[in-house]
């Protein structure tokens, strides 16, 4: 009887124990720290099970473990029993599961989460979000590129979850989104208290090629390089340095984009207000070359006032030369004011106008007929260019090279670099041209020979050569040729052999060509002219007199 009762009690106890729910593997359970030894915490998770957890799993990144005997903690149950009969548990996995639940809730509500940057990986950083590890891209660290993230490491700060995938264990967070949101709120508050035209103090935060960003107390404004000073500023670093406190004026506020434009020069008087009174047209001033371009050079007349010397106004003689070969940056030069346009804030200057026109100087010092000597600078198809003083050239045309030779032939005797003498024949200061003549240095034998001779004149020539086509004759040293057809009026007498070298013959001048330097003569033309004159004086064939009678009478009259 008693034995049956004992068996019933044992069966009841067994059933009761089976009815007790045992924890499932892969779940989070509560446990109590019962001992700490060898860098591990021994935790009783109930159900007559104990497990071990490394102390480092109880520490936040960069901090010491915070765990004591008697503390209640949640751990993750991997397995109910291992080879040593202990439960396999993990505090880190428990924190991760807890964190994922919390982070998913925050992500759904678009709430910020707290975390700490604890490591650097390719492309960004790792962040501990209270048990879950997230990735922070480098572009999401700050609103501006961060060169040194050291000061941010280990600091607890808010982050915004951009993306998370629990199945893959991926979380992407942003610190930049938090800063931009905070900055936007701060910017809106500061901008609300600013107005265009207001003068404020700011601190230079960053300098670029086009300007500087100035912190106005929570909001940045752009101070463009053109608004820093009335004068030309090549780079903002010339007048500003990072960390410097400056006084600026709010030039413009864009309420939609929250962009603020600032100016420093607006706090100074505009030098262009007095340009016309200070720099009268035609006046000469000393300025400093500030910039050189392909089309000219900019010259600063005073701080804030610059003028352009166009390349065409730089030199009287250097026409196709880059301005950089005439002036250099920072050089002081004398310039003349040619034009002022206050509306466009432009001043046209001239450099060559401060020097005398070299062609005018040459004309004064070298009147027509003056003999000069110079080097042949260039040879062209139409003449020689000879270098003269003050970097100007004179030209000897083909027709002014020689009295005796054709210009095309005479120019073959010259080479670049030759020194030649020539006479000044014309100076045109308006067209900047100087005409020279080499042949003018010698007497014009043709002009001297034919002096007083004109077309129709009767002159005596000397036969110098007999040819089949005619005879060569000479008059005052000038050679001429009488063609066979011009040797006589009658065809029967048009024979060159009837003349001998040395004969003196009267001829009629048919042409005097100074350009070709040729004297045209004809015996036939003389005979025809004599016949015509005799007819006019002594009768005509119409009166019944023969030509022989008329000529005989003419001869008697001459006698």
Q: Report the C-alpha radius of gyration, rounded.
A: 57 Å
Which structural class matches the secondary elements?
alpha+beta
Strand content: 35-45%
Low-pLDDT sequence parts? none
Structure report:
- The strands form 6 sheets. The protein has a 5-stranded antiparallel sheet.
- It is built from 9 helices and 30 strands.
- With 559 residues, the protein is α+β, with helices and mostly antiparallel strands.
- The longest helix has 18 residues, at 2-19.
- It has helices at 2-19, 91-108, 176-192, 275-278, 358-365, 407-410, 445-449, 523-538, 547-558; strands at 27-37, 40-46, 49-54, 72-79, 88-90, 112-121, 124-128, 133-137, 156-165, 170-174, 199-207, 211-215, 220-224, 245-254, 259-263, 284-293, 296-302, 305-310, 332-341, 346-350, 371-380, 383-387, 393-397, 419-428, 433-437, 458-467, 470-475, 478-483, 504-513, 518-522.
- 18% of the residues lie in helices and 38% in strands.
Task: Summarize the structure in short.
This protein is 18% helix and 38% strand. It has nine helices and 30 strands. Pfam families: S1.
Give structural attributes:
9 helices, alpha+beta, 38% strand, 30 strands, 559 residues, five-stranded antiparallel β-sheet
